[in-house]
Amino acid sequence: MLELKNTGKVRDSYVVSSDPSRLVVVATDRISAYDVVMTEGVPRKGRVLTAVSLFWFDALKGKLATQTPVLFDKVDLDAIGLHDEFLGRTTSVRRAEMVPIECVVRGYLAGSAWKEYLRYQSVGDIAMRSGLMLGSKLDRPVFTPTTKEAEGHDLPLSLSQLRARVGTSLACELEEISLFVYGEAMRVAADKGLVIADTKFEFGYIDGKLALCDEVLTPDSSRYWRVESMGLGREPVQLDKQILRDWLSETGWNGAGRPPTLDAKVIEKLSLSYVAIYETLSGLSFTDWPGNYDLRCYLGERTNKYES
Fold first, then answer.
1. Which of 121, 123, 225, 287 is the most exposed place for a label (fewest CB within 10 A)?
2. pLDDT tens readout for residues 244-266
């Protein structure tokens, strides 16, 4: 028996009465920007997010504690009354007591970090040298945590504010592990011709131990660039959710009020770019991933507040 526990911007999580120690997590095809869920979905997106997360959890196996997600097959889905639409997007994870912090790591100047640098010559209140340009590699990756808000915008935290919220010991542990995982991921990505400009992690306690949880290094939570597209003074070709943010900026929408209807071309570009990240990282064809490659979007439990 499944009971809905939480509906996030992208994922729906359920409790199975027969095993309360685990959650069933379904990655939908919903997409959000500026903390607003778009009305339209992106085909294949939820399955790609699941595939990419599982790739990284496997790559990090044995290097740190994780939520150990397990992909459901058809037999597993049948056992809990879910149909084929859930194939390739549904995992079982260990329940965790989540730390309400987004652990952001930045290795390159992009997005809000670039805007902060232009204004203050800093990134996350950390002073940077002069002369950096859009897309520049930072001298070392920086940890720039934020709050994790249920609704609305996450708020940036200085390291002193983080320590005040969670304590010095946990703050140091979050920073150390986040920088470690980012470093490991950068080495793997570099071998595939990719750069991870920035990313965010979430952590929780499982059996009293801090563990890496939720999604890991997906195109929703990370900026992916192809190495060959990089050049000083311009932002490289995007393979992630920045595609949507850039398009929304061109329409003039800034996150207030009803979002515009997504253009079919931007939806297709997002879908193909997400698939390309999985295929580049894994060396496998996404057509072989469980589920119907051409299945319509699955939008899950969340009702968009702008729908009539």
1. 287
2. 999 999 999 988 889 999 999 99
Q: Are 72 and 78 in contact (CB under 8 A)?
A: no
What is the average per-residue pLDDT within 276-292? 97
pTM of structure = 0.95
* Res 304: pLDDT: 60
Residue type, 244: L
Of the candidates 251, 266, 300, which is a domain's last residue? 251
Indicate whether 164 and 87 sit together in one domain.
no
Based on the domain organization, do 76 and 107 belong to the same domain? no
274 pLDDT more than 50 = yes
The CATH number that applies at residue 152 is 3.30.470.20
Contacts of 272 (CB under 8 A, 6+ apart): none
* Domain limits for position 173: 98-251
pLDDT value of residue 61? 96
Cα 18 to Cα 22, 24, 37, distances in angstroms = 10, 12, 32
Q: Rounded CA gap, 47 and 63, in Å?
A: 25
CB atoms within 10 A of CB 35: 12
Closest CA to 222 of 264, 172, 255, 181: 181
| Helices of type H across 200-256 | 242-251
Is 205 within the bounds of a domain? yes
Number of helices and strands in the chain (H, E): 7, 16
What is the tens place of the pLDDT at every residue in 52-90? 999 999 999 999 999 999 999 999 999 999 999 999 999
CA dist., res. 288 & res. 132, Å (int): 42
108 domain-assigned: yes
Q: What angle do CA 161, 97, 2 make, to 5 degrees?
A: 140
pLDDT over 90 (residue 117): yes
Which helix (H) or strand (E) covers residue 143, if one does? Answer: strand 137-143
Domain count, the chain: 2
Same domain? For 43 and 145 the reply is no
Residues 155 and 246 grouped into a single domain: yes
